[in-house]
Amino acid sequence: MIGAKRGESEPASVVPALLERWALGYLERFASSAENLRRVLRRRVRRRVSDDETAQRAAALIDDLVERYRRSGLLDDAAYAAARARGRLARGEPLRRIAAGLTAKGIAAEERAAALESLRETDPDPDLAAACAFARRRRLGPFRRGPGDRARELAAFARAGFARREAEAVLGCADLDAVAALLDAERS
Known about the structure:
Shape: elongated
Order of helices and strands: HHHHHHHHHH
Number of strands: 0
Largest sheet: none
Strand content: under 5%
């Protein structure tokens, strides 16, 4: 209500223009899959209204809005999945964890598989490349300063979701040149 005083509450209503404003505001700030946007909007509606009938009407409006955004190209799950997978790999996450993250964001199985396959096309062993990035970020193995505890470093790789093979390969490198050689040998 315009001009409402503090403490007075506006009647809860969810109109298409409000949903559109929420959706565009969210998409301005974050990349999103269609399912993730649907979840975000439904959470906002649940916080605003208390009756189930209004929430169900809003859910139908949200579904229409998300479908319209898909048709217009504003939401593209395949592009979102590919970009998110590349970013997660660069941050040092293994493929298994990337796939789980895409599932949590509501990406369909075929789009998820295509995103992971594109990672395998650009790098023959993306898990090894991710393990090197992880070691660099966490300063493990050849990236550490000073002495390290190999058992603790292996445990860090395991908690991050890496197989022992990748962890041993990275931790077996003596210096940064050995890491570069390891990645070059994998690409050859």
